[in-house]
Amino acid sequence: xxxxxxxxxxxxxxxxxxxxxxxxxxxxxxxxxxxxxxxxxxxxxxxxxxxxxxxxxxxxxxxxxxxxxxxxxxxxxxxxxxxxxxxxxxxxxxxxxxxxxxxxxxxxxxxxxxxxxxxxxxxxxxxxxxxxxxxxxxxxxxxxxxxxxxxxxxxxxxxxxxxxxxxxxxxxxxxxxxxxxxxxxxxxxxxxxxxxxxxxxxxxxxxxxxxxxxxxxxxxxxxxxxxxxxxxxxxxxxxxxxxxxxxxxxxxxxxxxxxxxxxxxxxxxxxxxx
Length: 274
Known about the structure:
Elements: H1 15-29, H2 31-36, H3 38-54, H4 62-79, H5 86-93, H6 98-119, H7 121-134, H8 149-161, E1 167-171, E2 176-178, E3 181-183, E4 188-192, H9 193-196, H10 241-258
Antiparallel strand pairs: 1-4, 2-3
Helix pairs in contact: 3-4, 3-10, 4-6, 6-8, 6-10
C-alpha cells in the first residue's frame, strides 16, 4: 500500500524524501501552482453546481459527486485530462504519489464540513447570510474568501473536529526525554490530531461545532499553533494544503450560496451520525 515506503508521506526523512518533496512543491503543490489551476477548479466546481441544480428537490449522493469532482480537478492539474476511470487514476497516481492523499483528504474535508453544517442549521444559515451578502450583485462567485470571516471560522472548526488526517506519523530525529519517558532516536511517533482537537483542557465544549470560537482568534492551521494541526507541523507539514483549501473554499462558497440543504427522507438532525 505504501509502494515500499516510496511516497512522500511514508518515506523516511532522507535525500530521496527531500528530492520528492521539492519536485512536488515546485511543480504542483506550491501556492503559485495552485493559483495557476484556478480555471480548472472553477470549471469542475461549476459542473458540480450544475449537477446539483439539475436534481433540485431530489435526493443526491453528495459524497460520490464531491469525490468525482476532486478527482477531476487533481487529474487535470497533474495530467492535463480527466480521469473518470478510477483504475486509470490510481495507475497514474503511482507516478505522482502525493496525489492520492490530496484527492482523498480534499473530498473528505468537504464531506465533513457540509455534514457538520447540516447537523447545525443555525451555523449554516449564518454562513449563508455572510456569503450571500458579500456576493450580492456579483456576476461571478470567486474562491477568494478573505472577507468571509465566518466561513473561515467554519472551515477551522471543521478541521478541529474532523481533521482530514486524524493521525500523523513521525520519526524521532534524536534521543529525547518526554514527560519522564525516554524516546530513542528513530522511534515511530503517532500524533493524534483527532484527540488534540477534542481536548477539554484546550477547547471549551470540545464536542460542539461552534465556529464562533475562532472569531477574533489568531489560531490557524499552518503548523504554528499546536492545538490545531490538521496538516501537521515542522518539516512534515503537508504541502498539499494549498490545493485542499482552494478546493474546499470554492466548493463551500458555491454550495452554500446557491443551495439550501436538508437531510433526505425525513431524517432528523439528531439521527445524522457524524
